[in-house]
Amino acid sequence: MTARTTSEEAVPSEGGTISRGGTSRRAALGRSPVTVTFALLIGLTVAALLRSGSTAITGQALLTGLIAGGVYSLLAMGLSLIFGVLDIVNFAHGAFLGVGLFVTYEVAHQTGLNPYIALPVAIVGLFVLGALIQLLLLNRTIGGSLERQLLITLGLSLLISNVLLLAFGGDPLSANLTSDPGVHVFGAVANLSRVIAFGAALVLAVLLYVLLERTSFGRAIRAVAASRQGAGLVGIDVRLVYVVTFGLGTACAGAAGMLIAPFTTITPTAGDQFNILAFVVVVMGGLGNVTGALVSGLIVGLVEQLGGVAIAGQSPLLGVFILFLLILLIRPQGIFGAKAP
Amino acid sequence: MLEVDNIAAGYGKLQILHDMSFHVGEGELVSVVGANGAGKTTTLRVISGLIDALSGQVRYDGEKLTGLRPHQIVRHGIVQVSEDRDLFGPMTVEENLILGAWTRSSSGAAAELERVFELFPILRERRRQAAQTMSGGQQQMLAIGRALMAKPRLLMLDEPSTGLSPKLTWDVLKAAQEIRDSGVSVLLVEQNAAQALAIADRAYVLESGTVALEGSGPELAGDERVKKAYLGL
Fold it and tell me: Which residues of A are less than 8 Å from B137 in CB distance?
């Protein structure tokens, strides 16, 4: 087979222009929202400082916010992955986190051991649960209308909460550590369980990132996200990728549930509030953008805590929702731009 | 080796193909031409398993393909390049090509990558570039290159000239001939009848979802009815 010199000559300049155009547009649109977001975070920190008049309180809010954000990141990465690859708006994500809470409670109480031994159980268990739901329910709706999948996940969310209510009752449960000392970080204090949750969530988030970016199955997942038909035409079993991806997404929720279990009041509807938070993070990071969700989770955690100090006497979520509205109005594609998991 | 027998197919209530039959032999370049809506693309989609046939059979080396899913058909050595190319836009040229070899071992893929880069040197130059930032011609070459990575025995090209200049169209069609010369059977669907017939070993003319005429490429190119209806002569 010979080289085709004519097409070589004709094409490079054309392609070069397109790629240059793309880069400069990214630079113009992409950098500024990130800068604005960080300016906003600094502004909030200053506002919190002025309002409280105390570096200790502000420092504490920064630490608490960052640590809470780590779990939001992990939770939202799973949700964003599911949206990016399957185009499913998964309203059951918070409920899966709830299952993770109860798995932790059950494992800790049956074995009498440290709740953290439930982490692998929650990850594997929720992976299997998610994979089965995709295999038995959602794979049947492929090619159907988006409302169908949306309603199925909404129904699943109600079903899961009520099954948990039936099995465990409505009384609040706990899976506390036997000893949960405070850890000092730059003058602020956080409970050991929260520090562990932050660290473990970030490690799992990085593992998920490596799986997607550095393994061949991860490449296949990204291929399905980019073009479902193209993936089928190169021989990728798209339905299998769907099953594994939904499983990975729910495993993220399960792991997040386990990690927050030691400092969370465990009730059948405890996951619901995280549903909304996770959606805020996903939209902020760009729908389907897994890396964006990782960074946005930390931002939402910080805004929640700093906002709580700066605008005292309200739910800490107020600041988060103001930011969410601003993003929807000004930059609906999210801070980190296009859909690219 | 590929036999399409009495296929009927369509979308919902709209039936496009009626009793469609044709075959592609080993090492042949077969062109399928016809007007818009004649059923060219639908035929390829049935063979690839992207849509199901209502009746009839597709056989490959005597084995029944109808009812298999797209990824299983690729494993039989039949690979389609669709009209809208279906590239993995945000991913690099190299990643697109490596994914093309999904059904093969990684050692075989490395050798195949070299051959694709030889056929389309521009792809080597742009291996780190995102597929969606390339021009239409380059994207078509990438789509064909990606299909070749699977080391197909039958390559199906759906309207490769779409969106290309006449010059680039000719380059792509010449590439199809080279691919045929390397021993891969090629099934080419084209609206651009004159060029498709010129390079074909054999060709079929489709009308309203069924084969209206068949013959060798030059034969059909010389046929009065074809000249009138498709070549504008």
Answer: 7, 10-11
* A190, A66 contact by CB (below 8 A): no
Instruction: Give, in order, the Cα–Cα distances in Å from A106 to each of A129, A265, B64, B179, B209.
Output: 17, 14, 51, 61, 62
Q: Any idea what the Cα angle at residue A177 is, between residues A174 and A181, rounded to 5°?
A: 125
A299's tokens: 């931002």
Among B48, B50, B69, B71, the residue to mutate for chain A (most A Cβ within 10 A): B71
Top residue of A233, A236, A237, A336 to mutate, by most chain B CBs within 10 Å, is: A233
Q: How far apart (Å, rounded) are the C-alpha atoms in residues A133 and A88? A: 13
Nearest to A240 by CA among A217, A207, A209: A217
pTM of the full predicted structure? 0.87
Distance of alpha carbon A176 from alpha carbon A196, whole angstroms? 13
| Chain B positions in Cβ-Cβ contact with residue A219 (cut-off 8 Å) | 91, 95, 98-99
Strands B185-190 and B154-158: parallel
Q: Give the start-to-end residue ranges of the domains of chain A.
A: 64-269
- Helix ranges, A87-145 (H): 93-111, 118-136
Task: Provide ipTM, 2 decimals.
Answer: 0.91
d(CA A176, CA A173): 10
Using a CB–CB cutoff of 8 Å, tell me whether A340 touches chain B. yes
Nearest to B86 among A2, A7, A227 (CB): A227
Question: What pairs with residue B59 in β-bridges?
Answer: B3, B64
pLDDT string in tens for chain A (341-residue length): 444 433 333 333 333 333 333 344 444 444 567 777 788 888 888 888 888 888 888 889 899 999 999 999 999 999 999 999 998 889 999 999 999 999 999 999 999 899 999 999 999 999 999 999 999 999 888 777 778 888 999 999 999 999 999 999 989 998 988 888 888 888 888 999 999 999 999 999 999 999 999 999 999 999 999 999 999 999 999 999 999 999 999 999 999 999 999 999 999 999 998 988 999 999 988 888 888 999 999 999 999 888 888 887 777 788 888 888 888 888 878 877 654 43
Helix (H) or strand (E) holding B100: helix B93-100
Q: Where are the alpha helices (DSSP H) in A139-289?
A: 146-168, 192-214, 216-226, 228-233, 238-260, 272-285
CB A296 within 8 A of CB A335: yes
